[in-house]
Design goal:
Layout: E1 10-15, E2 18-23, H1 25-54, H2 59-75, H3 97-124, H4 139-151, H5 173-184, H6 190-205, H7 207-221, H8 227-236, E3 248-251, H9 262-281, E4 289-290, E5 294-295, E6 307-310, E7 317-320, E8 326-331, E9 334-339, E10 341-342, E11 345-346, H10 349-361, H11 381-391, H12 395-405, E12 410-413, H13 425-437, E13 450-454, E14 460-464, H14 471-489, E15 509-510, H15 517-535, E16 537-544, H16 549-554, H17 559-575, E17 581-586, E18 595-599, H18 603-611, H19 617-634, H20 640-653, H21 658-664, E19 670-674, E20 696-698, E21 706-713, E22 717-725, H22 733-751
Parallel strand pairs: 8-12, 12-13, 17-19, 19-21
Antiparallel strand pairs: 1-2, 3-14, 3-20, 4-5, 6-7, 8-9, 9-15, 10-11, 13-14, 16-22, 17-18, 21-22
Helix pairs in contact: 2-3, 3-4, 5-6, 7-20, 9-10, 9-14, 11-15, 17-19, 17-22, 18-19, 20-21
């Protein structure tokens, strides 16, 4: 295996004539270029921080205001120094004129910025635009959008709107309790409901207002009253495995195979990811805008790279590095550190492919304990934390672990083949999903923000850790990679990356380990826990191509609402009952917003499912109810985050609330999420609908429940990702998949629209 011997900067020997010092000019050159790259990056960050801090102002705007102000003073013979020098402007130019003009002009410029920023914050606090019918925009909404555009400034960078976003509001106790009772009514009989109604009213009258006061205080002080507690208590304090239970996956193209050469696919993908990181560091990524006008929070992007989840005995932490110039790679039980820069520049795709080829050709065997080391990240958190402190806090083990945890991201060159097989579509897709979700339980570093997994036949995918951000953030990166890979970067006719290899490129560095037998026992114990969990997961993927968004819109119904109602119908047929349903909705209209729950199993939806008459009226009522629930969740009027934070406050105060305890212990037996396509402009979905991600999925939240993720691809395709557990006699992912397909078709039949019209 080639080692990076060129990194040695100098050598010296002692001779009778003295010390003979031999400098390696190439190494010194690389050190100089590396330092230059770091200083450039610091300068860019400083500059971007300044531009973001004064947005919607700009240096050009500053010059216009100051020059205009000074010109006005000169024309009107005004003295900004207020005559302190005792001379008239007619006699001579005041020595304070320029300084005073710049000072007052700067103050005027800052005042204009603050006014624009606060006006924009007030404008963004209005959400009436959400209630407009699809395809119709009222005059008031048009005027509002015009004002938003005027006060939003020009050419915003990724973080430009952070200071203009409103804070997430705290709903009233009365509204939250009322909506909660409404959400559980279809799931309880009369006796259960009356009991819960009594608990709710008692909480609303007694303990609730006290907890609400503390929560209001936090909302005034903190940027977001939910997000920090959500990250800590829902994710970082969990002591069970994050593999399957928390981490999620994203798939490659379903029907397109750009190359079958593993190293080449890795070369293009890694280069595309590094280009994205460079744009992220420079804040050159456009902030996501709803309706091309309404900005969304970008705070979650900050920890995408150079970040790792670090285990603790009681709680984990997120370790983020400002700078990382290497990636960590795993192949057949060996770990490698691969530098991403040489000659002061980012490695090109063919050069990265060259590094991957070296790893694939390495004949060396794993060191004792090395092959299954990553199983520590797949098992329970406390044993991993104790093992990390005991066996990885010093020496070569610490150095190697630092190389992984401080890497930009993690790459697995998988030695298996995964791909959609038209001859065996069900088995091939199920195997593909399970491999991305958990693999062999020791060939992914589940603590990294994301793992790029490249299979032996060139197929690839991602496995992402959940605590640092939500799926749309990693989805934004993945869309960039897939849009760059086959078209913009491309491959030669022989399937290799375009370009040439580098003759002097130092090879990857093999990480060294000294793992004692006691640590190997901990690794095996974690692997046993992880394998038990992984073997229990039942994954099923459905590429639903009977119809898609185009036909649903002809029904004058929201595609998301249509699918959610179909899931309720499918679940009722699958289990013969309704259940508490979780649908993830974003709250990124607010500063540092993450998610809220849409309780999709409503009274209206249940009424429709029970009837299933050939009348579209009840379906439209149920769909409108779902849309209203979604709007409430997006605008800070949801139920579950408020109740969660009230529960956290009650624990801090040492107060026991039977109501909150029971509410937060209710299992989500149907957990759903839509994977949004955020950068439609990157893909030509009319000519090439196949050139887009087939979405991703996650494990079931409840032992006897289902996890369902779906992505609406173009106008005629919807991909469903279903998960459950084999150990539950109530669930079967394939059976549920069949029910989903039939429910979608049955719902469409209610509208009596001929699918052939859309062909």
């Amino acid at each position: 295996m080639a080692e990076a011997h060129q990194a040695v900067a100098f050598q010296f020997t002692v001779t009778p004539d003295g010390i003979d010092l031999q400098l390696c000019h190439e190494a010194l050159r690389q050190i100089y270029l590396s330092g230059l790259h770091s200083w450039k990056k610091r300068f860019i960050r400083f500059k971007n921080g300044m531009l973001t801090g004064v947005y919607p102002g700009s240096p050009g705007g500053f010059m216009v205001v100051v020059v205009s102000y000074m010109s006005y003073n000169k024309y009107n013979q005004l003295d900004p120094s207020l005559g302190k020098d005792g001379r008239s402007l007619n006699d001579s130019v005041s020595k304070y004129f320029h300084f005073g003009g710049v000072l007052v002009g700067t103050g005027l410029w800052v005042t204009i910025i603050m006014i624009m920023r606060n006006v924009l914050k007030c404008l963004l606090s209005w959400h009436g635009w959400m209630h407009a019918r699809h395809g119709s925009v009222s005059l008031s909404t048009r005027l509002w959008m015009l004002f938003v555009k005027v006060f939003s400034g020009r050419k915003p960078m990724l973080y430009s709107f952070q200071n203009s976003l409103p804070r997430l509001p705290v709903p009233s106790i009365k509204d939250t309790c009322s909506r909660y009772l409404e959400s559980v009514r279809p799931l309880m009989d009369d006796e259960q409901y009356e009991r819960m109604k009594g608990l709710t009213k008692d909480f609303e009258k007694n303990l609730g207002p006290r907890l609400q006061w503390y929560l209001k205080l936090k909302s005034w002080w903190a940027s977001n009253y939910v997000s920090d507690w959500w990250e800590e208590y829902i994710y970082l304090r969990g002591r069970g495995p994050i593999m399957v239970n928390s981490n999620y996956y994203a798939m490659d193209f379903l029907y397109v195979f750009p190359t079958s050469i593993q190293a080449a696919r890795a070369g293009n993908a890694i280069h595309a990811i590094m280009l994205y990181r460079r744009k992220l560091d420079r804040a050159q990524i456009k902030p996501l805008m709803l309706l091309h006008t309404i900005p969304m929070c970008s705070a979650q992007y900050e920890r995408m790279f150079n970040t790792s989840r670090v285990p603790g005995v009681d709680t984990d932490t997120l370790q983020h590095m400002n700078e990382s110039k290497h990636i960590a790679v795993y192949h057949k039980g060996r770990f490698y550190k691969v530098w991403m820069f040489y000659d002061g520049r980012l490695l090109l795709p063919r050069e990265i492919e060259q590094q991957m080829e070296r790893i694939l050709a390495d004949p060396s065997e794993p060191m004792p304990g090395e092959e299954m080391l990553a199983a520590l990240t797949a098992g329970d958190r406390t044993p991993w934390a104790k093992a990390r402190e005991t066996y990885f806090s010093r020496g070569k083990n610490k150095q190697s672990l630092d190389a992984i945890e401080k890497a930009a991201f993690f790459v697995t060159l998988d030695d298996t083949e995964q791909r959609y097989d038209t001859n065996n579509p069900v088995k091939s897709l199920d195997s593909y999903a399970k491999s991305l979700l958990h693999g062999k339980c020791y060939d992914r570093w589940f603590d990294k923000t994301f793992n790029l997994i490249v299979f032996k036949n060139g197929t690839m995918g991602l496995n992402a850790e959940h605590s640092w951000a939500d799926a749309p953030i990693i989805g934004h990166l993945w869309e960039h990679v897939l849009s760059m890979d086959p078209v913009k970067l491309g491959y030669n006719e022989d399937g290799h990356c375009r370009g040439q290899t580098h003759p002097n490129l130092p090879g990857p560095q093999r990480l060294q380990w000294d793992i004692p037998s006691e640590c190997t026992e901990v690794i095996q114990s974690s692997l046993t826990v992880a394998r038990t969990l992984a073997d229990d997961v039942d994954c099923h993927i459905i590429p639903f191509s009977d119809f898609g968004k185009g036909l649903i819109k002809r029904c004058r119904t929201s595609p998301d609402a249509f699918i959610q109602i179909a899931l309720q119908l499918a679940h009722y047929r699958d289990k013969g009952k309704f259940c508490l349903t979780y649908e993830a909705s974003m709250t990124r209209l607010f500063r540092e917003g993450r998610t809220e729950t849409v309780r999709s199993c409503t009274i209206e939806t249940c009424a429709f499912v029970r009837s299933m008459i050939r009348d579209e009226t009840l379906l439209k009522v149920a769909a409108e109810k779902h849309q209203n629930m979604y709007r409430l969740a997006m605008t800070g009027e949801g139920i579950d985050r408020h109740l969660f934070c009230l529960y956290v406050v009650s624990k801090y105060l040492g107060e026991d609330s039977p109501f909150l305890k029971e509410v937060l212990s209710e299992p989500w037996r149907l957990s759903t999420s839509q994977t949004p396509l955020q950068q439609v402009e990157l893909f030509d979905l009319v000519k090439h609908p196949e050139y887009v991600s087939s979405g991703g999925g996650f494990g079931p939240v409840a032992d006897d429940g289902y996890g369902v993720s779906y992505i609406i691809v173009g106008e005629n395709l919807i991909n469903f990702h279903i998960s459950s557990k084999h150990s539950s006699p109530e669930t079967d992912s394939h059976r549920f998949g069949a029910n989903i397909r039939q429910a979608m078709l049955d719902l469409l039949d209610l509208f009596q629209i001929d699918k052939k019209d859309m062909k």
